[in-house]
Amino acid sequence: MAVLRRFARRGQGADRSADDPLDAAQERRVRAVLALGGVPQADLPDGVQQVRLRLLERAASGREAPRDVSAWAAVVASNLAMDWHRAKRRQERLGERLAALHEPVLPSAEESRLLSLAVARGLDELPDPQRQVLVLRFYADLPVRGIAEQLGIPEGTVKSRLHTAVRALRARLHEDEVV
């Protein structure tokens, strides 16, 4: 508790060196352990603060101070460096998984040829009105409204035919085990 009171007085103009649970030599040692542990230079101040915080938490919980604060601080700094690497690896794995979700899987030339043949066969099996709207929508890239205007039918009919045609084509491709 005395340590916490000294830190509270810091804001009242008290001398920082008297309030700091780590002396200058211990702080240098903590920085060195963190740096040798692979923590980037920019993260060293945060690591030192973490060691200070753990020392203060230890004092606040009523446990006695470590016999050798310098050795204790070095061990804590080493553990922080390992935690930093674990977190970095976790972030990298997460980044790889997210990137894999966005990588398009391009089929081989043979797979593309088989898929094209299966789609062509599936289109041939569709009734003419369904095939017509499917080709206009997905091959000619016409919007539903444009198809309806070109064919002189209501938009709802175009949507209905598209839905039925896509469902039938998808079933055919699954049946042929193409997709």
Ordered list of secondary-structure elements with their pairings:
Blueprint: H1 2-10, H2 16-19, H3 24-36, H4 44-60, H5 69-102, H6 109-125, H7 128-139, H8 144-151, H9 155-175
Helix pairs in contact: 3-4, 3-5, 4-5, 6-9, 7-9, 8-9
Please characterize this protein's 3D structure.
This protein is rod-shaped. The protein has 9 helices and no strands. The chain is mainly α and 179 residues long.
What structural class do helix, strand and pairing data support? mainly alpha
Helix content: over 70%
User: What is the distance, rounded to the nearest whole angstrom, between the alpha carbons of the first and last residues?
Assistant: 68 Å
Question: Segments where pLDDT lies below 50 for 5+ residues?
Answer: 1-16
Strand content: under 5%
User: What is the alpha-carbon Rg in Å?
Assistant: 34 Å
Mean pLDDT: 82
Number of helices: 9
Biggest pleated-sheet summary: none
Give me the count of strands.
0
Order of helices and strands: HHHHHHHHH
Q: Which outline best applies?
A: rod-shaped
Short key terms for the protein model shown above:
mainly alpha, 9 helices, 75% helix, 0% strand, rod-shaped
Q: Summarize this, please?
A:
The protein is mainly alpha-helical. The chain has helices at residues 2-10, 16-19, 24-36, 44-60, 69-102, 109-125, 128-139, 144-151, 155-175. The protein is 75% helix and 0% strand.
